[in-house]
Amino acid sequence: MKHLLSYLMVASCLWGCGDDETVSRFVDEPASTGSSSDGALPPPRTPLFKKDYDYRYLLVDMADRVVMPSIQSFEQEVLQLSESLGSACEGGDAASIENEIINARAQWLSAMSRWQHLELQWLGPLAENENVLRNRIYSFETPARAEACAVDIAVVAAADANFDAATRANTARGLGALEYLLFNENLNTACSMAVQQTQNWNALPELDKLQMRCRYAQLAANDVKAQANNLTEAWAIESGNYRSRFINPDNTSHHLKQLSDGLFYIEKETKDAKLGRPLGFYDCLQLACPKAVESRYAAMNAQHIADNLRAFKVVFNGANGQGFDDVIAHEGYAEIAQEINASVDAAIVLAEQLGAQDLQVQSQAIVDDTSESASAACQAASANPSVEDGDFCDLHGFIKNITDQMRTDFVTIVNVDLPKRAQSDND
Questions:
Q1: Where are the domains positioned within the chain?
Q2: Against a cut of 0.85, is the pTM above it?
């Protein structure tokens, strides 16, 4: 929460600067009282502001302190990833190339960490045309998720001088394809023998395989760099200047809705797709689904989830500026924002505690336990999560605590609708 002095300074400008054209709540009627996790919202405290909250300040702060810095940081990390692969493929022997690939892994991890923050900022250019730019950069949880065989086919095709990585489907490009190329140490193809393009791959010398995969990794990294640059240019004041549209009072309701929708990434993507499906909680025909795990090759499942949660806090609280916590405080429910933050902090603690543990291992253990006791124990842990000796099932439960608060208290107080993709709860 921001200090009282900061509120009073902003309030004095809102009330005394002579501009009465403030942006009122984008829904004319107040939301009906919803119920919180303990039954009902407490009676509101007296709001600090006596006028409707001016969302222009929030949108300006989100653009200048959250979204644009996140995009610029990601672009810089991708640039460094591309540069790290620049000469990696020209080593004289297999060991030299392998060492360069290992070095590039660290830069991929940095780029992916920044991207996991942007995953909660699906708005503007990133969300246009059914998220086409987002999916080109990272296609997790889409029908065109990066797929090993598709990448292998692209590796072979890239030997053609006229090859253009930008023409490949999302199954063979983006950060997901780069993860496979950099972290998968099995040099044999993932394709079946029925796939003509890769039929001769396994017979190639090890050095040829390493060089060809490395060269396609260069092309894939350059493609991601180009997409990141497109995103930066779209927002930059001197070029696409989406910022001006984002902060335009005429677009307030649309962009506020996009921001609030972005927060629900932790429900549909983080909780349901990254945890719920691998653990067998939903949309899985087995006791669990190990192949649904995000980051199967880098085994960074917990770290990606921790980054999602940190990104949630940045959007929810703002970055030393206005955030949704200020909106909630303005409505007289500052303690609700504190409770949501406490729930997020608990989930972050466990995600960080899990560290390098691989969700695939726990998911496979549930599948292998034919007695189904592991599955039952996982369900119980999610229903009553604990940090002490907690695992991915507990983490699912902690995140559900957050999303339950978002579905009730948050949407009621901020007066927004649930995203279309979150109209139903899978738990």
A1: 55-235, 252-422
A2: yes
